[in-house]
Design a protein that fits this description.
Layout (H helix, E strand, L loop, with lengths): L2 H6 L4 H10 L4 E4 L5 E4 L1 H7 L4 H7 L3 H4 L11 H8 L4 E6 L5 E13 L2 E10 L1 H42 L6 H31 L8 E3 L1 H19 L2 E6 L6 E4 L1 H17 L6 E11 L3 E10 L31 H11 L5 E5 L3 E14 L10 E6 L2 H16 L3 E4 L7 H4 L2 E5 L5 H10 L4 E6 L1 H7 L8 E4 L4 H9 L9 H12 L1 E5 L3 H12 L4 E5 L2 H10 L4 E4 L8 H14 L7 E5 L6 H7 L4 E4 L4 H14 L10
Helix pairs in contact: 7-8, 7-18, 8-11, 9-10, 10-11, 19-20
């Protein structure tokens, strides 16, 4: 302690000397004039001065002790003291080695020997600042890496998946079709792995955000059915979907995370189920009242099962419960699922018996946005006839749906069954149904309507033929789709009224594609021209705006990252053209590799009407285009000459 301190405060000098010696942090005293009157050895050690007197000769006031911040002066002690009661204060001091170090400044005012005195403590924060800066650099690096992974993988995968789908509908021999199946399966596996890696990196960054948006649970899982049915068929697995008809029409929750978990569970179930086995996907309403519903999501399989000792490890990243098999993958799907469910205040439940299969499930409490109510169907009695064991399982599910619709149904085994004389409708579950089969049934029971239930692949194969059935229902059986089909007027054609109107619309509609990747341009053009859309392509946002100035389009597919002008700017300018020229507001759908948290909200807030991530699911894209065109069909122009 200084001689000056002893002279000014003789009665309290010893107490303050002991206090200063006890303090490990740099410690100093300022008088009422804010001049330095004393300090401890820690401050002298920091600054490199041999004594207090030498320190005071160079730095007599508190501001002089600190390195001035660039472009501004340090305030006086009184101002520092007032601020310290409200917010933390920081300053930088050059130590004896010349290094600039950060300190938090704490100031306390006391009265000593009837004189005011400021007690100043300096708490070093240099390492904390360095850790914060390192963390910030790490987050910036991983953030850029996530963006690059998402874009660099999703863009080429979009082309691989898309062209594989187109190639499947060309003339292929058995070997070529097998090769193509392997390509499709591999690309879907890569897509799933990339999604899981991105989710895992987000989890490590603490970047999980749970959205609360209204979604239709039945519509949500329709793409899962179309995505996995063909994969299961090729492997020889029965894939069944049961969606509780009592599910509310709208639920509040994070639909994207729920789908991510369910895809991981279905991926694993199909992967580890042998040919001839079964995978059963169920979404059931367990509890419901006016405002809330408890929904259970589950995936059960007849696969290898999991040993009891392995159940405790299956949530760890880069481990697998099937480590003794050659089918082991990265093992991150279940770990990511655990993390996602934890963020949604739920957990993954596992029940398994080695050699018998496994059941993974989780429950989520949702607020109800709109309750589901199926209107009565005109059909009152129906018969269900399945031709194979696999279709018989689908028939059991079908009967549960019919019961929920208020339709009495029975299973029949042949056209001689007496129930067919009472039934109004026959569901014929036959993957290889032929026109002559339908004709024979109608010839025996002239008043009986027939709904042919086929696989999605068979539906595509039959496109353009006249089957003679009144309705065509493609698997997977989903209650909303089934109810909508039964609510339509029967028409003795293959194509249901919805599909017919879709083709009428598609022949008239003009679509502008804004995409800078030539391969994706070719993919989108080839796909949409198959459905008779009139297509124009722009290489960037500026070309898209210029093209839209020349003529209006019925719909725009917009990439987001493009040279010259990005998709968000182009969208704003196109809508400005609509307002200025009093055009109908054109729907714009984003097709983008941006799939990180917040991307959807950011893109939709910029004025786009819908958002799809690459690789784009063709069925979802076509359905979305059809819905937007149906909404504006009264304004659709005939095709240009």
């Amino acid at each position: 302690m200084s001689t000056l301190m002893q002279q000014r405060y003789p009665n309290s000098y010893r107490t303050f000397e002991a206090c200063a010696a006890w303090h490990g942090d740099p410690y100093l005293y300022l008088d009422a004039d804010e001049e330095l009157v004393g300090c401890n050895d820690a401050l002298l050690e920091l600054t490199g001065f041999e004594s207090f007197e030498k320190l005071q000769a160079k730095r007599a006031t508190l501001p002089q002790l600190f390195v001035p911040e660039t472009g501004r002066e340090l305030p006086d002690v009184g101002v520092w003291y007032e601020r310290s009661n409200a917010v933390p204060l920081y300053g930088r001091i050059k130590d004896k080695g010349g290094e600039i170090r950060l300190y938090r400044v704490r100031i306390k005012e006391v009265t000593l020997d009837v004189q005011p005195l400021y007690l100043v403590t300096l708490e070093e924060k240099t390492e904390q600042e360095r850790a914060t800066a390192a963390r910030r650099r790490y987050e910036e690096l991983t953030g850029n890496l996530l963006v690059n992974i998402s874009k660099e993988f999703r863009t080429p995968l979009n082309s691989i998946v898309g062209f594989t789908g187109l190639l499947e509908h060309t003339s292929l021999d058995v070997v070529q079709h097998e090769y193509l199946t392997h390509i499709r399966d591999a690309s879907e596996a890569i897509t799933s792995t990339v999604d899981n890696l991105i989710e895992l990196m987000q989890a490590e960054r603490g970047d999980f955000r749970v959205a609360q948006e209204l979604f239709d649970p039945m519509a949500l899982f329709e793409p899962i059915g179309s995505r996995y049915l063909e994969l299961a068929r090729v492997k020889g697995i029965s894939l069944l979907f049961m969606f509780d008809p009592k599910l509310p029409k709208q639920l509040l929750g994070d639909a994207k995370k729920i789908v991510r978990v369910m895809r991981n569970l279905v991926d694993n179930a199909i992967k580890f189920t042998e040919p001839g086995g079964q995978v059963y996907v169920e979404v059931a309403c367990r509890e419901v009242d006016i405002e809330r519903a408890m929904i259970e999501y589950s995936v059960a399989d007849t696969g290898a099962g999991i040993a009891e000792e392995a159940l405790a490890t299956i949530a760890r990243p880069f481990t697998s419960a099937y480590s003794e098999t050659s089918r082991e993958g990265l093992g991150i799907g279940l770990h990511v699922s655990h993390r996602l469910l934890g963020a949604m205040q739920s957990r993954l439940r596992v029940a398994s018996r080695p050699g018998r299969g496994s059941r993974f499930s989780f429950r989520l409490a949702h607020r109800i946005g709109e309750a589901s109510r199926f209107a009565p169907c005109s059909v009152r009695r129906a018969a269900v006839m399945a031709t194979r064991d696999a279709m018989a399982l689908q028939g059991k599910l079908l009967q549960q749906y019919l019961e929920a619709f208020g339709i009495e149904s029975r299973e029949v085994t042949g056209v001689d069954d007496g129930w067919l004389d009472e039934a109004e409708l026959l569901f014929l579950l036959n993957a290889n149904v032929r026109p002559e089969t339908v004709a024979a049934i109608k010839g025996r029971h002239r008043a009986l309507k027939v709904a042919a239930v086929v696989t999605s692949a068979r539906e595509e194969e039959l496109r353009g033929e006249t089957l003679g059935s009144d309705w065509l229902v493609a698997l997977p059986l989903l209650p909303e789709k089934l109810h909508a089909t039964l609510s339509q007027p029967a028409a003795p054609e293959l194509l249901a009224p919805e599909t017919q109107s879709r083709e009428v619309i598609s022949r008239q509609a003009a679509i502008l594609i804004a995409e800078d990747n030539p391969i994706n341009q070719k993919l989108m053009t080839t796909l949409l021209e198959k459905f008779h859309y009139e297509i124009a392509v722009a290489d960037n946002g500026q070309e898209a705006v210029d093209a839209y100035l020349e003529r209006p389009y019925d719909l725009v597919l917009m990439d987001i990252d493009m040279p010259v002008m990005d998709g968000l700017t182009a969208t704003r300018l196109i809508h400005e053209i609509d307002r200025r020229e009093k055009r109908r507001r054109v729907p714009i759908i984003a097709l983008t590799a941006h799939a990180l948290p917040g991307d959807r909200e950011r893109i939709l807030d910029a004025g786009l009407d819908e958002y799809l991530t690459k690789p784009v699911d063709t069925a979802i894209l076509l359905r979305m285009i059809r819905l937007f065109l149906q909404e504006t069909r009264s304004n659709i122009r005939p095709p240009s000459a």
